[in-house]
């Protein structure tokens, strides 16, 4: 690369924020399959155990008995069923360090009442009183906007059941809770449309969409099925269903585990994206991926990454009026799962979702990045999903992801600078940055450097390169620095090793030219409040002809 004028690092500021150390992204198919196997294993290991599931099922049965014992005519002929993560088979264990309700497994129950009457608040109070009288828990029931929450804090892990009363909407002649229902909403003291049973059936049907896997993906599927067997369906979905091989369910579990970790601290817990939005957007994305895989087969890891990548494209509406619609409620109205984004705090909720999504996308790509050591990969996975990635680590005995070792020399260049010498580096993996490079021949765009790496081809001479930030989870304002390092005999012979830290002037990109052969590389560093909080690296292999 040519020697460009550089602005060396001149100043420091004070320390506060933490860092992620993520290096070069690789599209190596072997690595993709290994990482995919690791992700599915993590998804299985963060699911409920058989014992934990049995405890939920026991208390679920108790709710039916409590309702049946009532003499109130409005509770006659009630039909009780599960909804949410239990029905969808996407429940995950709480993250270590969570507190309050977030430290509990969430189980959602609907009490369908064909004789409920029309007074929403009266029905809500009726169910509340009945549960308070019949439930024997140390912690009294608490009230949410649309449900009565029963706490079972003595279980391991503790869990709660959100019990929601419901009746048929006008025109719905269903007899077991199917179709559009009305549920009490305490905020408006009236009924709101919902369709929990139909939504669960819709999600299950999307899960049943067939993904066409490549040959390596098929081999993994066969091995997985030999290990875990087939799933069954009971009044509550059988526990075996939680360890089945399904890309959509695995993706939702991973996303929820990551969300729970990112919003663990009480100061941000109120901003955590709700599960129904995550589940709906992931399902929409999976539909698209499954359809496209018929003509372009995927590997298991690729499917999970693509699901996460595509999620935001299924959010409709404009700023201040975003919509994530319930897919099973049609005209004359619809249920907007993102309705709180339109409240006074809506902007903060939407921003938190988008920031979380950027971080989650980096998380499902972790095993496709180069880490210097296995320990770094282990720590990154543990931070992202609450699960270590070591072969002997808790709950992860299978498919140790291969760790790329850096091909770059460790020797310091004559003028080379290191970010660690100028700023403290926090490696808690809270923030991430991703860079890519556009390749041009003259004024014609040839493609991206990432595509070349995918096919293991080197750059020719006299190509214009633009390195740019394509994804950054660090909230602005922040400082961006670049480092261009030329490596190889030509660089050494001509004293053009470079390696100085270059301050970005606000453009978010860096222009270079391919001038001589060698295994060069470019790094980007994000500095916030005097701390390097994220970094990325891309190899730039330039051929000798």
Structure description:
- It is a single chain.
- The chain is an alpha+beta fold.
- It has 3 domains: 29-47 and 202-214 and 246-385, no CATH class; 50-201, Beta Polymerase, domain 2, CATH 3.30.460; 406-542, Immunoglobulin-like, CATH 2.60.40.
- 31% of the residues lie in helices and 19% in strands.
- The chain contains 13 helices and 16 strands.
- It has helices at residues 29-45, 50-68, 84-88, 120-134, 196-207, 215-228, 247-262, 275-293, 300-310, 346-364, 374-385, 449-454, 489-493; strands spanning 20-21, 79-83, 105-112, 142-143, 148-152, 159-168, 181-185, 190-194, 433-441, 444-448, 464-472, 479-485, 498-503, 509-513, 518-528, 531-542.
- The strands form 3 sheets. Strands 2, 3, 4, 5, 6, 7 and 8 form a 7-stranded mixed beta sheet that branches.
- Helix 7 packs across helix 9 (300-310).
- Residues 1-27, 228-234 and 389-410 have low confidence and may be disordered.
Compile the SSE list and pairings.
Layout: E1 20-21, H1 29-45, H2 50-68, E2 79-83, H3 84-88, E3 105-112, H4 120-134, E4 142-143, E5 148-152, E6 159-168, E7 181-185, E8 190-194, H5 196-207, H6 215-228, H7 247-262, H8 275-293, H9 300-310, H10 346-364, H11 374-385, E9 433-441, E10 444-448, H12 449-454, E11 464-472, E12 479-485, H13 489-493, E13 498-503, E14 509-513, E15 518-528, E16 531-542
Parallel strand pairs: 1-16, 3-6
Antiparallel strand pairs: 2-3, 4-5, 5-6, 6-7, 7-8, 9-10, 9-11, 11-14, 12-13, 12-15, 15-16
């Amino acid at each position: 690369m040519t020697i460009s004028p550089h602005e060396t690092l001149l100043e420091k500021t004070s320390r506060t924020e933490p860092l992620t150390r993520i290096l070069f992204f690789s599209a190596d198919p072997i690595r993709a399959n290994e990482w995919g196997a690791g992700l599915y294993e993590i998804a299985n290991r963060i699911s409920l155990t058989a014992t934990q599931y049995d405890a939920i099922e026991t208390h679920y049965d108790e709710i039916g008995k409590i309702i049946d014992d009532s003499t109130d005519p409005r509770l006659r002929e009630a039909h009780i069923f599960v909804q949410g993560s239990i029905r969808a088979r996407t429940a995950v264990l709480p993250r270590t360090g969570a507190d309050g309700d977030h430290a509990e497994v969430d189980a959602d129950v609907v009490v369908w009442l064909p004789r409920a009457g029309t007074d929403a608040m009266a029905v809500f109070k009726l169910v509340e009183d009945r549960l308070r009288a019949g439930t024997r828990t140390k912690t009294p029931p608490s009230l949410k906007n649309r449900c009565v929450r029963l706490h079972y804090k003595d279980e391991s892990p503790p869990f709660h059941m959100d019990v929601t009363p419901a009746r048929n909407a006008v025109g719905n002649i269903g007899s077991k809770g199917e179709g559009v229902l009305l549920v009490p909403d305490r905020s408006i003291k009236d009924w709101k449309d919902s369709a929990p049973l139909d939504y669960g059936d819709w999600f299950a049907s999307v899960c049943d969409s067939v993904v066409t896997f490549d040959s390596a993906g098929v081999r993994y599927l066969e091995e997985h099925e030999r290990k875990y067997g087939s799933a069954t369906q009971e009044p509550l979905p059988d526990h075996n269903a939680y360890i089945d091989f399904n890309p959509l369910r695995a993706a939702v579990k991973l996303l929820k585990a990551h969300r729970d970790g990112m919003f663990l601290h009480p100061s941000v817990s109120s901003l955590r994206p709700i599960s129904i939005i995550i589940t709906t957007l992931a399902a929409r994305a999976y539909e698209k991926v499954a359809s496209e895989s018929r003509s372009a087969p995927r590997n298991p890891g690729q499917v999970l990454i693509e699901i996460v990548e595509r999620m935001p494209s299924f959010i409709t509406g404009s700023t201040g009026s975003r919509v994530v619609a319930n897919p099973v409620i049609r005209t004359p109205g619809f249920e907007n799962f993102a309705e709180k984004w339109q409240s006074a705090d809506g902007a903060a909720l939407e921003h938190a979702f988008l920031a979380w999504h950027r971080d989650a996308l980096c998380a499902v790509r972790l095993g496709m990045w180069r880490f210097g050591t296995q320990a770094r990969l282990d720590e990154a996975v543990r931070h992202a999903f609450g699960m270590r990635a070591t072969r002997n680590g808790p709950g992860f005995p299978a498919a140790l992801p291969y760790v790329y070792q850096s091909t770059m020399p460790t020797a310091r260049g004559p003028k080379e600078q290191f970010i660690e010498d100028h700023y403290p580096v926090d490696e808690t993996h809270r923030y991430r940055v991703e860079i890519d490079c556009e390749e041009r021949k003259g004024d014609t765009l040839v493609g991206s450097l990432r595509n070349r790496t995918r096919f293991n081809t080197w750059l020719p001479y006299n190509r214009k390169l633009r390195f740019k930030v394509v994804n950054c989870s660090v909230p602005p304002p922040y400082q961006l620095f670049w480092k261009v390092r030329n490596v190889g005999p030509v660089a050494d012979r001509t004293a053009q090793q470079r390696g100085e830290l270059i301050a970005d002037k606000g453009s978010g990109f860096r222009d270079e030219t391919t001038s001589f052969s060698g295994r060069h590389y470019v790094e980007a560093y994000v500095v916030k409040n005097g701390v390097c909080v994220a970094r990325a690296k891309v190899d730039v292999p330039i051929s000798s002809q």
